[in-house]
Design a protein that fits this description.
Pemi-like Protein 1, Chain: D, two-stranded antiparallel ribbon, 3 helices, 4 strands
């Protein structure tokens, strides 16, 4: 295992073997840097022949941070979605009420 520092970042390099059933052992030093423990969910990403391993919590945090950067910390997309759904439900109820009034009037005419 070796460490390498580049652009202010420290990388840990290790060689490990793939077992017959496809398992790899992540060395303790790397697990510690990744902040993962036995039983934790991890995300595997393979791109251009490179395997990236990241804890699910860290990936989720990075996505949340990126979303905040894009939309701003004061904006709540959840609140906006709830407001949209409430407006859609209100509109649907109004349409349904109009339909019931129209069909009730048509029944009286027919009768």
């Amino acid at each position: 295992m070796s460490n390498h520092t580049s652009r202010g970042r420290t990388a840990i390099y290790a060689k490990t073997d793939l077992s017959a059933n496809g398992r790899i052992v992540i060395p303790a030093a790397i697990r510690e840097v990744l902040g993962i423990k036995p039983g934790d969910a991890i995300v595997l990403e393979a791109e251009d022949g490179v395997l990236r391993i990241e804890s699910f919590k860290r990936r989720l945090g990075r996505i949340q941070d990126e979303l905040i950067r894009l939309v701003g910390p004061e904006r709540s997309l959840a609140d906006e979605l709830i407001a949209e759904r409430r407006e859609e439900a209100r509109s649907a109820q109004e349409e349904s009420a109009k339909d019931r009034l129209q069909s009730g009037g048509e029944m009286r005419k027919a009768g």
